[in-house]
Amino acid sequence: MKMRKSLYVFVLFLCFGTSSVHAQFHTAKSRSELGFLIGGASYIGDLNPFEPWREINLAGGLVYRYNVHSRLTLRTNFTYGRLAGDDSKSKENLTKERNLSFETNIWEFAFGLEFNYFPFQLGHDRFKGTAYILTEMGLFRMNPKAITDGGTEVELQPLGTEGQGSSLSSKGNYSLNQLCLPIGVGAKISLGDKASINFEIGLRKTFTDYIDDVGSSSYVDPVALASENGTLAAELSNRSFSGSRYGRRGNATTKDWYIFSGMMITFRLGKPSKCMPWED
Is 153's pLDDT higher than 60? Predict the structure, then answer.
């Protein structure tokens, strides 16, 4: 009799546990969204300190959301874009005289939180749209390049154009992998109970001054640089029309920023959960 009773208890526990796991899995899917974003990427730094929209390049990526409740969403995104800067496009004569340029691909992985200004839920009759604030932590990879006078594209970091890795500087070559803090604002609108469309602009605060390969306020001795790091390093370090080494190369007191902005569409991974409303 005790054996039979124990068996009943075990079967009930197994059924309850299986049902609970299935319910949790269903709830997790119903709260999850997966989608893509497309837009533009631009840069703010030594080669473009004042006009963040001067040179915008195509950007895109993937995004995953987990809606904790109607005001808070956990988010992970992987984004790709291209950044560029060119002194020839500046309105300042002194900047044009410097004659530097660069471009780099940016691969970014970030995770963080979205805070909805109004309650929001896919398919809900009342909570169809909201503005939101985005705050994340991220890791990105860069690789600044330039075009030589002969038309060849070269990677700038290994050259040490400011004397990095030589007796001319106390710095080693900067890392191509860097941290960033994405912060942004956006708005999202529900497209029924399965999808939403979003519009977002996000700034990336970085901790490097070398997205553009320019971090020093002055030039190093070109003869010494050519001797230690090679003639190509000296050629790409100072490309000014005057050739003077006493001009201003960059601004050593500031760090570089970049921007992703555009449109995003996400889709709910599971069916709407009727037994666990989360408009709270």
Answer: yes
Domain harbouring 218, CATH code: 2.40.160.20
Side chain identity, residue 271? K
CA 86/CA 96 separation, integer angstroms: 9
pLDDT at 273 over 90: no
What are 159's two structure tokens? 């050259």
Residue 65 Cα distances to 33, 35, 213, 243, angstroms: 5, 9, 35, 52
pLDDT classification of 270: cutoffs 50, 70, 90: confident
Contacts 24+ apart (CB under 8 A), 83-91: 83/41, 83/42, 83/43, 83/57, 83/142, 83/211, 83/258, 84/43, 84/55, 84/57, 85/43, 85/45, 85/46, 85/47, 85/48, 85/55, 85/212, 86/47, 86/55, 87/47, 89/54, 89/55, 90/48
Q: How many domains does the chain have?
A: 1
Q: Is 88 left (phi over 0), alpha (psi -120 to 50) or beta?
A: alpha
Q: Is pLDDT above 90 for 257?
A: yes
> What domain range is 42 assigned to?
33-268
Domain assignment present for residue 28? The answer is: no
Whether 213 and 233 have beta carbons less than 8 Å apart is answered as no
Residue-wise pLDDT for 168-214, tens only, equals 999 999 999 999 999 999 999 999 888 999 999 999 999 999 999 99
